[in-house]
Write a structure and sequence with these properties.
Length: 375
């Protein structure tokens, strides 16, 4: 770090050039290298987890949890578990509409939650919510969702985790007569909510609404409420304006709520900050608020910004391979690193920004997990 008064001009030059991230100027380090490709990545505290695809293994789909302190890791998917038996794995790439659904994996301490697919054909598929822990004996399926060519049913909408909280969202769609419907019946959201994982079981968060988007931090959750529906997952939408609710993940107690200024794309939750990536007429912006709903500020970010994560001090997102951050209180976005390929599961934990990426080494696809510290 610059610390001599004679270097003041150099420091000002760094600030004016947008490189005022001090020690984060260093290159990213590699936390893990794999001989497989990585489908999903997550981090929490001193743990990281990744879902990998090993075409040479009897169990093609695998989930690993690594303890960064002792540098120990464990394969938490076992031959008798549902992940090994999923015939489509983390993402049914060849299954028409379903190929657009991103693989999901989240981490809460040493517990992981993810989704796998099975029995996929052109019109239907089975999707399972699966959990395992570093100390456990095998992965366990918690819930099953059947996707078919119709609209009616329960749909899985996002999973999230942090600290002691693992949650997933459900949206229920029924065919009913609704205002403005041109036909005898139209599809509409008829229910849903948030399920919290307790060991190898789940319990409903009392009174939680069906989510369009979902984020967890500590024992709290933030939900962009799903209010409108068309057919299939892509048809579920928030209201206009969209409503965000922050609730206690155990009791369901209301912490705060607010209406968004623009169309939400992603939501992230810090210990005392809510960050929402929004689409605007001129591009995109991040809206920062307190858990109670008070607006802190909005800041413009690049038009192709995606994959939002936040702490109380700083949010991170990426624009293509460019990893960028923005402070909660002031300033614009700053590039801190470049990924070797499309970043997977980009997030920030304390001062550590981490992501996974797949690269080609000697003509062979490989995965690696990268990290950089920002201050």
């Amino acid at each position: 770090m610059l610390k001599a008064t004679g270097l003041l001009a150099a420091a000002l030059l760094l600030i004016s050039s947008g490189a005022a991230y001090s020690r984060s100027q260093a290159s990213p380090t590699t936390l893990v290298s794999t001989k497989t490709t990585i489908a999903a990545f997550a981090q929490d505290g001193d743990q990281i987890a990744w879902a990998s695809v090993d075409k040479h293994s009897a169990c093609t789909s695998q989930v690993w949890i690594r303890l960064l302190g002792p540098k120990k890791q464990k394969l938490v998917t076992k031959p008798a578990g549902p992940t090994c038996y999923s015939n489509a794995g983390f993402n049914p790439y060849s299954a028409g509409f379903y190929r657009f659904i991103t693989p999901e994996l989240v981490l809460a301490g040493k517990r992981a939650l993810w989704t796998v697919w099975s029995d996929v054909n052109g019109t239907s598929a089975h999707r399972y919510v699966v959990t395992a822990s570093y100390a456990g004996t095998r992965d366990v399926a918690l819930d099953e969702f059947v996707f078919d060519s119709g609209c009616v049913g329960d749909y899985l909408f996002e999973i999230s985790g942090d600290s002691s909280t693992l949650v997933y969202g459900v949206v229920s769609i029924s065919m009913v007569k609704t205002p403005g419907c041109k036909y005898e019946v139209c599809d509409a959201i008829s229910g849903g909510g948030i399920e919290r994982i307790t060991g190898t079981d789940e319990v409903a968060v009392p009174g939680a609404p069906p989510p369009f988007a979902l984020a967890a931090s500590g024992h709290r959750i933030a939900v962009v409420v799903a209010e409108k529906s068309g057919c299939y997952m892509g048809g579920v939408r928030p209201g206009s304006p969209a409503t965000v609710k922050v609730e206690d993940a155990v009791s369901g107690a209301n912490i705060g709520s607010f209406s968004l200024m623009k169309k939400p794309i992603a939501i992230a939750l810090g210990p005392s900050v809510v960050a929402v990536l929004e689409s605007t007429a001129g591009g995109r912006q991040i809206e920062f608020r307190t858990h109670a709903g008070a607006l802190l500020r909005t800041v413009a970010v690049p038009a192709k910004a995606e994959a939002l994560s936040t702490t109380d001090k700083r949010a991170v997102f990426h624009v293509g391979r460019s990893i960028q951050t923005v402070r909660v209180k002031a300033g614009g976005s700053t590039k801190v690193a470049s990924a070797g390929n499309a970043p997977i599961g980009l997030s920030i934990e304390g001062t550590r920004i981490a992501w996974a990426e797949n690269v080609v080494v000697n003509h062979v696809p490989r995965g690696r997990i990268r990290a950089i510290n920002v201050y």
